[in-house]
User: Fold these one by one.
Assistant:
Number 1:
Amino acid sequence: MLGILDGLDPEALARPVLPSGWSCAQLVHHLAVDVERFWFQRVLLGREVPLPDGWEIGTGVDPLALYRAESAETDGIIAATDAGAAPLWWPTFFGDFRLHDLTEIVLHVITETAVHAGHLDAARELLDGRQWMTFD
């Protein structure tokens, strides 16, 4: 995720280039709080953690630093938790959808992160022509 964005200045990170209207900074912020923090701290551990509403980034928040911090927190949680541990909280707004343990949560987060990495890769190419993982 972070390698795709390496070298982009803050203006480019904040500029929406895809029809959906989100910026790279907003997508990384989403991954930090709505993916890493939500799935591992809120769902798996049942912690009452702040979760923003929508795509807005708070004033003074560096989404890249936030993603690094949330990812490091996730790494610690995964290292300290049994793979078969069941979530301690589950959102009712998911209806019948359910992940049953840490292993399923990790696989879900890998999938969501991979999808968003593709989005970021396309956005980066539109911003400055750089492509991730090309061998020139």
Number 2:
Amino acid sequence: MKSDTENKKSKKVLKTTADPFLIDLLKSSSPSGYEFEAQKVIEKYVTPVADSMKKDALGNRMATINSKGSPHVLMMGHMDEIGFIIRYINKDGFLFFDTIGGHDVGLISGRKVRILTEKGMVYGITGRRAIHLLTAEERKQMPKLQSIWIDIGARSKEEAMKRVSVGDAVVYDNEPFYMDNGLLCARGIDDRGGTYVVQEVLRRLSKKKMAASLTSVSTTQEEIGTRGAIPAAYEVHPDIGIAVDVGHATDFPDGDSNKLGEFKLGAGPILARGPNICPRVFAELKACAERLKIPYQVEAESGPTGTDARVIQMSREGVATGLVSIPLRYMHTPHELACLDDIEWVVQLLVEFVSSLKPGDKFEW
């Protein structure tokens, strides 16, 4: 087994630009329950190479290649992101909202946002009282969600309601951009980075002969309770399942490695170990990384993970499950940060994993 030092010396891809497929996914607006734009991107890039592309009542997109192969492998990455939902429009045309998924309320105000309406995109800004107008006590406290609103420039409720409706979804409005050392900053890398990976693995394997069958699923509503994964895992009924999500990098000024473990951008995929993970799947993923000289990091998970892996493992009679994560800084903020090398390495690792399977392979233990 290779040491951590040897892994760190492994060859780097050092990508400085992303696949257009990934960029198009990151530009899409797809909060939980409103994943329409991401669905269209996936259909555009994946349908031409898939043997079949299925959709279901929750909006999942399930692409399959080599359907008669064995074993049947399922890969999942969720396409939804955190967002907001309009719940009230006041008499002056200001919009009040609830959160979709987990937010740091302190980061919400002062942002440009997109409102997804039936008539098209409406742009606004999140506002609250300026700091000059807050009391000394209020300045010490986290703002309450009810004290933040969206301003679309309307002068009345009637004017606002001609443009937006209660129940419209909202996301931050910012575009992906590159930073030094092959870093990519964008909204919603959690987890459109993961959904890109599972579909890109399928795209690359569609050109190769292999024993296994592969179904790559872009799931919906993960951010509000891994909801899309439940019917999708049941429908696919796989022998082996891999979830691809993001994991917390701890290489920032007050990153708590004592609590979370040590994870760095550019240090390779994060492979999970623990009760949610089949030991044989973990061992094979690690072996594949070492064969390809891909650096990797290991994360200890003491119980069910907060990912689609928790659903895959418990589907039907149970599924041998693995979890591979992309290291990510600033999760669930308007600007998440990942390394393009790590994303590419996850793709390469999973291409190797599926390619290496032999007919009838089982991961019982």
Number 3:
Amino acid sequence: MCDEFIHPGLVEDPRLSRRSFGVMTVAAAAVASTAQAQTNVVEKDVEVKTPDGNCDAVLYYPGGQRTGSAVLIWTDIMGLRPAFRDMGRRLAGEGHVVLVPNPFYRSARAPVIGPTFDFNNPEQRNRLFGYRAAMSDDGIDRDAAAYLAFLDAQPQTDKNRKAGVQGYCMGGSMTFRTAAALPSRIGAVGSFHGGNGLVTKDANSPHLLIKKTTATFLVCQAQNDDMMQPTVKDDLKAAFEAAHRPAHVEVYHANHGWCVPGGQVYNMAEAERAWTALGALYKSTLA
């Protein structure tokens, strides 16, 4: 769920502007020798061909001759921006080959917000909702297949290992769709403050897709999402049990959006706890 009641106030990132975002790779190249010496991670801006067009994205992988398992990151409703680049870089530093696409490529190139975004501003908020509305369920499934195919085409990807997918806010439901669309490929799913959209009364509710997957799930819910709909966690647990899928569902002591730096609700301690849980999931399922 992503609305003015869940995302309070401003989201800020002074690194983020259309001009600076467009030259981030150039700037990174200027310090590549230092950065890669410290992290041994390679970062590339890429274009991924999908059935619906070309998606701008960023690819990360461990340097040298190392290979790793593939991981796809679905962003929150504010899209691909420096905070998610940081996540991709961190995951690659842990040994994964990571793709972070711009989910709104049908509507606009990244970034789709500026250095300051006000969720209380209807014009700004509704523009993002319009971008999201352009993503149909079938379109998300096609995108997921294209993104995993792109990852699997990289020489750094170990295709003998299962792949992971993680998502934030709106990306939480997209992780469920990805696991259902690619059951033989996706071995681990991480959903972070995915909101109450994970369980709906609609025929396309993400929780109904669990039975089509073969993955292990980590679902980390926000406390204010849980306060609004306290039955969601129980419905998820019941769906996992019925599908015989291993899963951990937990309500964190933080509000919707807590995992992503830049927002007023960012909670470093709980974000790091979620990251540790994700690392444990990937270590146990993607090794």
Number 4:
Amino acid sequence: MTDSRIETGVPRADNILKGGLLPNSATLVRGAPGAGKTIFGLHFLTTTADPDATNLYINLGEPAVYLEATADSFGLNTDTIEFLDLSPSGKEFQTDSTYTLFRSGEVEQPSIVEAIRQKVDAAEPERVMIDPVTVMRHLAPDKRQFRTQILSLLDFLKAKGATVLLTSQAAPSIPDDDLQFLADTVINLDLEAGHRTLRISKFRGSSSWKGPHTVTIDDGGIQVWPRLDPTRHRRDGETDTLSSGVSELDSLLNGGIATGTVTFLSGPTGSGKTTTGLQFISEAASNDKRSVLYSFEEGRKTMFDRAEAVGIPIERMIDDGALVIEEIGPDELSIDGFTHRLRTEVEEDGAEIVMIDGISGYERAFQEPGTDTTRQLIKIGRYLRNMNVTGVITNEVHQITGEFRATEQQVSHLADGIIVLQHVEYRGELQKVIGVLKMRSSDVETGLRTLDITEDGLRIGQELSDLRGVLTGTPDWQTGGT
């Protein structure tokens, strides 16, 4: 085997395979019915750098006419594919007798192996797919004969210079451990509760990205969305300070938020979390920094109206390319699809600030089998830090008053900084307050200040030094207060 790679044709699958499959190798794609094995194989056979190359599809299950129709429905061109139709309805085997895996000289029945040998000698294909190879198991008299014939067939195909892909109907009642042993690469396609994943369990001669990775099937065929691994991403950059543009708030933060860190804006509904985050984004835009905001809680129009009402020029920022807003609802994306979008914004489009608005909506959006949304959020935070991108995450605390909690999802350890926004009763009125609970990068003011959201933007007022128990929502006057 060499360092050159064979593209699978499946979007982003080659990233997981570190560039693709190894040439002259045998890959087993295994999974339950409906997991996407055949579509994966069609991508493999319709992807070739040489337009004159021939690829061979040996179909033992579905008839060729069905496979061609399937490829056409996904926009895959089968002009470079030759079909050897050995399906039960295939013309070559439409006889009263059953067909066999044995060589034709051993019994007086059609031989699949001999038919494959003749077709390969005639077509000289670069890529060969056998779908599903598990059909051959039922045609062999015993396991040993089956394994011997498959090994012989693979050796023959590799000797002819072909890269081989086999599919297996994986099921507890039909084990395929022997096929996994014979294959150089094993790709597992799983389907659970409507959620598809891909996992590489074996890749002889190469490493691969640890999965599982999300798989989707749409009008364009099958796509793979690699799971985010923050350790694979790093970008150096100078540490700076991201100002809010509000001098009193910057004073509270000792100048602003340190770039390349993750800051939580935590508080109950209506306390000003999203508006405060947009204030930082607005100031970043004025300094030619690009931001992306992922909204999980409120609609785009609501956000626009709110921003414009407090003097944040959100539409102008979007028109100037300084801000991208994506509204993401439940079941719209997988978590891997979302992190792929985020990576694209950072690595290809140059986003320097990423805002996730808010955590509860994020968790509702990605309720997938086997997905730990909190763990994935931690990975997103690590990725942003490694890429020297500033993260701003809003977190709703559902208690408007009462015992204070920084977060309700136990993710406060993810944050480098936590800015607290809260409602309190002050002098007989409901008042917003703001303070800094945590800031790893610098010393900050420890007091709480009043916060007003006006048509001219955020207004930070006096420090509430004459009150105690402010974060409970029902503060008491200090001794000597009035």
